[in-house]
Specification:
Helix 1 crosses helix 2 (about 20-30) and helix 2 (about 20-30) packs across helix 3. The radius of gyration is 18 Å and the shape is globular. By secondary structure, the protein is mostly helical. It is built from seven helices and no strands.
């Protein structure tokens, strides 16, 4: 659990560094991007090792049918992650699609995982996304111009389905089949 918490703290610190210490970050120049990327990579490794090594301590039992809800929410989450890259119809309408995707990812995983480590990991990342949006919203938003419209949405939908399949395959490979749990 210690590695999981350290990973979460490093994740939060690396993401909030630019806004919490803008002068320090600016003084680092392009090197700062590398340091942040390194910190985020280390955070991910710590979180994965910490989560997989954490003792299972149940807090609640997921309700029947939550597997379906999880998979539906995950499709929405993955779609939101692609909004900025494909620049479809949501792109100029939504300020934080990736962060909202992260919040939905967090909720989806909490619907099917009721143990302490899951509450720490998924709850901690979801809370980080909400805090990050609050911090970012302190600055004015320059609404982007529409770029690809429906073509971007179509590209995002195809990418979402491919990425969802890849994510499901990785989960199955790791022994966590997203199509078998909490479907009663």
């Amino acid at each position: 659990m210690t590695l999981l918490i350290l990973g979460l703290l490093l994740w939060w610190a690396a993401h909030l560094f630019k806004r919490a210490a803008p002068d320090v970050r600016a003084n680092l120049g392009d090197r700062g991007k590398g340091y942040v990327a390194l910190a985020l990579g280390a955070a991910l490794v710590l979180m994965v090792i910490g989560y997989r090594g954490a003792e299972f301590m149940p807090v609640y039992t997921p309700l029947p049918g939550m597997g379906h809800a999880n998979n539906t929410l995950m499709l929405i989450s993955v779609f939101l992650f692609g909004v900025g890259g494909t620049k479809g119809t949501l792109y100029p309408k939504m300020r934080h699609p990736m962060l909202w995707g992260t919040v939905i990812w967090s909720v989806a995983h909490l619907l099917v995982n009721g143990d302490v480590a899951s509450l720490v990991l998924f709850g901690g990342i979801g809370l980080w996304a909400l805090v990050e949006m609050t911090v970012i919203n302190r600055t004015p938003w320059q609404r982007p111009a529409p770029v690809r419209g429906i073509k971007g949405d179509a590209m995002n939908l195809v990418g979402t389905l491919v990425l969802f399949g890849l994510i499901a395959a990785i989960h199955i490979w790791l022994g966590y089949n997203p199509f078998l749990g909490n479907y009663g």
